[in-house]
Design a protein that fits this description.
Layout (H helix, E strand, L loop, with lengths): L1 H10 L4 E5 L2 H4 L14 H10 L3 E7 L28 H20 L10 E6 L13 H15 L6 E4 L9 E6 L15 E6 L10 E2 L3 H13 L4 E5 L36 H14 L1 H6 L3 E6 L2 E7 L5 E7 L6 E5 L2 E5 L3 E5 L7 E2 L7 E8 L22 E4 L10 E4 L4 H5 L5 E10 L11 E8 L3 E6 L2 E7 L7 E8 L3 E10 L17 E8 L4 E3 L4 E6 L2 H4 L25 E8 L7 E4 L6 E5 L2 E6 L25 E2 L8 E4 L8 E8 L9 E15 L18 E5 L8 E10 L18 H9 L4 E5 L2 H4 L9 E8 L1
Parallel strand pairs: 1-2, 2-3, 3-4, 4-5, 5-6, 6-8
Antiparallel strand pairs: 7-32, 9-10, 10-11, 11-14, 12-13, 14-15, 16-35, 17-28, 18-27, 19-24, 19-27, 20-23, 20-25, 21-22, 21-24, 25-26, 28-34, 29-33, 29-35, 30-31, 30-34, 35-39, 36-38, 37-39
Helix pairs in contact: 4-5, 6-7
This protein binds beta-D-galactopyranose.
Beta-D-galactopyranose binds next to loops.
Length: 792
């Protein structure tokens, strides 16, 4: 996907691709580096260079990034005497070795700009300033050590530290956040750099889906350049998918879509991508002035600001801002009047004409739809369902409840999970046997008791004598689990099995590397008046599942233990499922819809597509409509309340081969795999909503100033599609959003015919938004044109 994503970034107006370097990807085992396939960092950097773009390489090696353990390999934790991210010799030794290794790999390939390559910046550490206080006086020594260690690697290009106001020279301290216009670096010799402009926010399993309106994002970017910014990076421009067990958290979802301008599937998200592209063009029209001088500020009234970049030779560019979140304004600037919508910035590349306003979107919007794909059973080669994989194609293996591996071991007391599994698996079994005579005071009704289990998280499944007795689930705010479940015991031996499951290791916070998981106790059996505490008894432990050990996810093994039996067991826990499917036709991105399943992991042709968890619903409330005006925060704009946080799981086309493919699932809680369906993502509508007050398209700037606004529609590039129909067109006072436009009181009669004539049959079309073209249905009213069209 890299060339396509990088191409779309370049078309969107980016100059630099910023990427983290994940230590745990590249050194999964201490001393064994891995740069193969998707981990081929050199190839990635060269692909960016081939597109003509630069690179900012954020080596870290601590990353955060909602990535498992913040990017640290878990083996690091087991080095004797180690303390992460402080003045600690074992840690510094490893950090230096990995950083030097990455620098060396880049240097060997001559990838630094100082060698003629694309890398113009590198990052050491990540937002250490946010947590530094918790590390005491050693923190400062560590910051200085990091700085001089990085500098000594002699890359010939600058290093940055983000969120590190005390970054020592020559390290440039940079800003991360939703807004960074107020930021100033710690020396006037350093440029004002914004390393993370959060284009949206990440999603948790069990959480609502966050989004950030592009009017606000564009406002933040324009404000940054208005106030002397030099380099701004979107975090994320494309967030993609956390395949495998790469999500951190705990509880970060598999989708890392982030509401980014290029969505999880690699499709441009409109109008976000297009509006930012227009903004980037507008800012680049100001480039000469921006790089020649610092801005001069003038107030145009309360909350109304002008910043002018003007050189003695007369080059002039200006940014006019209305930072009031409620009222639109009309301002006078250099003798002319300008309309400034609330919470917006206008860009004037010649200090006179407005080429762009952050609140007025000229870019088209699109509607995408998920279409179900016909799949065929290979056994019968017949289309069976249109939306489901055929049931007869499924095989299964039951994962045993409790201890089933010879590597199991016994310990007195309860073990912390991460120290026990070293994160080799999400799963750890805790098993104990209890003898019952029937007279125990912790029983009631002769056979029943309450099983009480306390765990550091993240998910706990309990079983008594092989039967499921309940699940406890943490969430991103409180990862701990307290389970109280009524269990029935039998005279004689009873086996209690607890399956503790991690959902991504912590990635953020001071000493995050030490946060534990798993059953830490107490584990009690409680009657009405009495209880026994099993916590310090002898427990049996099993790391991981038997199916993992037998290589069930490895599709090539075609293990004979897969059973095809009618009926297929459904809605019962701990089952591995397997089926064949045909590659969905066409080139549209593919996702699996996991409705019917509850929680587990999925593999396509042996590639893990991540953890799935459609059974975890977002809270019912908190999704009220969101106004882009005013300060944004990660919980301001949320959608999907009451629904599964994630039902669609991306399967990159590159994981799928023509013809027969294999899907393997491990379901923890009990689901029905026959309900799973394959889907493709397709653009179904193009929309535009342009008002007479909008500036002319930024591309018109070089041909003539003061042109009229234009509504532009364009079918997806790289397709042979043309605009086939105009579903809606209205000139006057239409309302609504793409897919649900409505005519207003004021409405010309000829809009549909005019737009049809201009657009149908064409790959793209431009329609001027003016009374000259549409006539005037209502004088002295500001009018808009709204259009929804389809391509085929
Ligand atoms: C920042 C961090 C990033 C990412 C982001 C939130 O604090 O540097 O790596 O975690 O927050 O998405």
């Amino acid at each position: 996907m890299w060339p396509d994503l990088i191409g779309k970034s370049k078309d969107g107006g980016l100059d630099v691709i910023e990427t983290y370097v994940f230590w745990n990807l590249h050194e999964p085992v201490q001393g064994q580096y891995d740069f193969e396939g998707r981990k081929d960092l050199v190839r990635f950097v060269k692909t960016v260079a081939a597109a003509g773009l630069y690179v900012h390489l954020r080596i870290g090696p601590y990353a955060c990034a909602e990535w498992n353990y913040g990017g640290f390999p878990v083996w690091l934790h087991f080095i004797p005497g180690i303390e992460f991210r402080t003045d600690n010799e074992p840690f510094k030794k490893e950090m230096q070795r990995f950083t030097a290794k990455i620098v060396d790999v880049m240097k060997q390939e001559k990838l630094y700009a100082s060698q003629g390559g694309p890398i113009i910046l590198s990052q050491i550490e990540n937002e250490y300033g946010n947590v530094e206080a918790a590390y005491g006086p050693a923190a400062k020594t560590y910051v200085n050590w990091s700085a001089s260690m990085a500098t000594s690697l002699d890359t010939g290009v600058p290093w940055v530290m983000c969120q590190q106001s005390d970054a020592p020279d020559p390290i440039i301290n940079t800003c991360n956040g939703f807004y960074c216009d107020q930021f100033t670096p710690n020396s006037n010799q350093k440029p004002k750099i914004w390393t993370e402009n959060w284009s949206g926010w990440f999603l948790d399993f069990g959480g609502r889906v966050p989004y950030r309106p592009v009017e606000d994002l564009a406002f933040a970017v324009a404000r940054f350049f208005q106030r002397g910014g030099t380099f701004q990076n979107y975090y994320m421009y494309h967030g993609g998918t956390n395949f495998g067990r790469s999500s951190g958290g705990p509880f970060i979802s598999t989708s890392y879509d982030y509401d980014a301008p290029i969505d999880e599937y690699g499709i441009v998200r409109q109008p976000k991508w297009g509006h930012l592209r227009d903004l980037h063009k507008a800012i680049k029209l100001c480039e000469k002035a921006l790089i020649a001088t610092d801005p001069a500020y003038t107030s145009l009234g309360p909350n109304l600001e002008a910043h002018v970049y003007k050189t003695s030779s007369g080059t002039c560019a200006a940014f006019l801002a209305n930072v009031n979140s409620n009222s639109d304004a009309t301002v006078t600037f250099y003798g002319k009047t300008y309309y400034l919508p609330a919470w917006s910035v206008s860009v004037l590349p010649d200090c006179e004409n407005v080429v762009f306003n952050t609140a007025q979107i000229n870019s088209q919007a699109t509607l995408s739809e998920t279409k179900y794909v016909k799949t065929y059973s290979h056994e019968s080669d017949q289309p069976i369902f249109t939306s489901e994989i055929s049931e007869p194609g499924w095989k299964y293996v039951q994962e045993p409840v409790g201890i089933s591996k010879t590597s199991a071991f016994k310990r007195e007391g309860l073990l912390e999970q991460i120290n026990t599994t070293a994160d080799a698996s999400d799963y750890l079994w805790y098993s104990i046997s209890v003898n019952i005579t029937g007279n125990e005071p912790f029983l009631f009704n002769g056979t029943q008791s309450i099983l009480h289990v306390e765990s550091l998280g993240h998910v706990l499944h309990s079983f008594v004598n092989g039967q499921s007795t309940g699940t406890g689930i943490g969430n991103s705010d409180n990862v701990n689990v307290i389970l109280d479940t009524t269990v029935t015991l039998v005279p004689g031996k009873n086996i209690i099995d607890l399956l503790s499951v991690t959902v991504g290791l912590q990635n953020y916070g001071a000493h995050f590397d030490l946060s534990g998981a798993g059953v830490t106790g107490p584990v009690l059996l409680m009657g009405l008046n009495d209880r026994i505490d099993l916590s310090s008894n002898l427990w049996t432990y099993q790391i991981g599942l038997r199916g993992e050990d037998s290589g069930l996810p490895d599709y090539s093994k075609n293990s004979p233990i897969w059973i095809s039996e009618d009926p297929l067991p459904k809605n019962s826990p701990l089952i591995w499922y397997m089926t064949d499917f045909d590659a969905p036709a066409g080139n549209d991105p593919v996702a699996i819809e996991f409705t019917g399943m509850r929680k587990g992991m999925a593999w396509v042709n042996g590639e893990s597509i991540g953890r799935y968890w459609p059974a975890y619903l977002a809270p019912q409330t908190g999704c009220s409509s969101c106004n882009y005006r005013g300060t944004y925060g990660s919980s301001k704009c949320l959608k999907n309340c009451g629904k599964p946080s994630q039902t669609l799981y991306h399967v990159p086309r590159s994981f799928i081969q023509p013809g027969k493919n294999k899907l393997i699932l491990f379901e923890e809680m009990g689901g029905d795999p026959t309900k799973i369906s394959f889907t493709t993502r397709q653009t179904t509508s193009l929309c535009g909503y342009i008002s007479e007050s909008h500036p002319a398209p930024v591309d018109a700037w070089n041909t003539a100033k003061n042109q009229l606004p234009v509504l532009h529609l364009e079918c997806p590039p790289y397709s042979n599609q043309v605009i086939s129909s105009v579903k809606f067109a209205s000139f006057g006072t239409p309302s609504g959003t793409c897919g649900s436009y409505k005519h207003g009181k004021c409405r010309g009669s000829s809009a549909l015919a005019i737009v049809q004539r201009a657009c149908v049959g064409a790959k793209s079309c431009d329609v001027e938004v003016s009374t000259k073209l549409f006539g005037d249905p209502c004088a002295n009213v500001s009018k808009s044109l709204a259009v929804e069209a389809a391509c085929s």
